[in-house]
Amino acid sequence: MKLLKKGAEADIYITTWNAQNSILKIRKKKDYRIHSLDTRIRTLRTIKEAKMLSEAKSIGVATPLVYFVDEKKCEIYLQFIKGKLVRDLPIKQIIRTCKEIGKIVGVLHKNSIMHGDLTTSNFILSQKGLVILDFGLSQKTDKIDDHAIDLRLFKEVLNSAHAQIVDNAWMQFIDGYQKILGKNVTDKVVNQVLVIEKRGRYANVV
User: What is the C-alpha separation between 76 and 46, in angstroms, rounded?
Assistant: First the structure.
């Protein structure tokens, strides 16, 4: 078992499941929380993530298969996806791929799923196409504000990790998003993104 990533919520390992490569996600104990509460929170989040991954797959979004959920240990065994993170693709390819990311996010939002952690590190380009990862912060919601928060995070990631292409990449993302949700809905969500940005600027000033 090899550690791939240490996160605030969980650690990610590459391991095996039934003799094939697998990703193991382990939600870590939080010592600052009461033990019974901590166990409940981690268990519920583990179950919820597995359900959201499966639900996203059921609506046609490419996600890793869920192999096994260990509720007691707060562990999920997932399909290992071979490919390259969008974050690490050549610049021109990142721009093109943002259109497909927009379509994926559009499908999620159309089906009332907020991802909660849209970054170029949570999309992997495999031989079969683009796969979205990590539904640990996802939730069911139809609220425009929640969908706008998803878009705002992705825009922030573009701005910080891909500053040289942020404008073109964002335009491609919105174009893909609009192809799924249409202009009226897209305009409402994008306008709400602007509202959220203004809130942030005001908070920084005061």
Answer: 7
